[in-house]
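Please check both lines for our workbook:

___
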Amino acid sequence: MNYSVQRQLSVAIENQPGRLAAITRAMGSRGINIKDLSVIDNVEQGMIRLVTNDPVGCKALLIKEGFVLKDTPGKLSALCQALADAKINIDYAYGSEDSSEEHIRIVMKVSNLEKACQVIQTVQES
């Protein structure tokens, strides 16, 4: 029996047109090849799971492009407050932190996804 261990990356994205295109465009421009791909959708969000020829470079690129929320003290608080200020309710949320304790992925169901995406983009840029 032959087997190999490879690193899979998981990226939570907004379930809206163009998000997968943005990720794959960024990867392609850096020469990162997708070996395996799974895309799962539901109303609130999509989840991309992928294995690439360069998982470390791919992860760094996705972080740089803003697909992962930087785990710094107060960042989640700023995001939640910005959503509250925009009158967006968080119906539920869960998250996980990578082993380096530098990045966190937050999954949220919100009352107004389109508006929340705008708020989240603003928080990420600040």
